Amino acid sequence: MYKTKQENYQDLHANDNIITKTVSISIGMAALLFSAFMPVKVFEVLVTITLTGCFLSLLLVIPAVRIWFLSKFMKPNETDSYKPTGTILSQQRIDIIKIMEEQENHLINQQIGKYSNIRQAQSATE
Asked: How far is CA 24 from the centre of its chain?
């Protein structure tokens, strides 16, 4: 129900795609206005009206109805606790980094131990 910043950005990016596609299709259909055949011109006008209606409903009507619907019927419960996923992921990443650092330090200490054993064995034989 609650959106993260990334989901809001994706919604805005989707609106950019809708605008771009509607404008590009409208420009492509505008070439049909220069047709000598009258039914093609009428078809182009009808397609433009349909595209404009779909475009306006996607950007204005549907979000407004969704907000109205969610505000009336899907109010969050007071017992619901909202935890943003970003902090959980950050804590998990920190834990993973700590584990990896511990493993790395353990491997380094093993290598140092082997090296010091080799040095001791060499100095004992000399």
From this structure: 24
* Six-digit token string for 38: 């009258």
CB 31 within 8 A of CB 48: no
Global confidence as pTM: 0.42
Residue 13 sits at the vertex; the CA angle it makes with 66 and 80, to the nearest 5 degrees, is 45
Domain that holds residue 73: 1-77
Last residue of a domain, one of 77, 92, 114: 77
Tell me which of 4 and 33 has the higher pLDDT.
33
CB atoms within 10 A of CB 106: 10
51 and 7 both lie in a single domain: yes
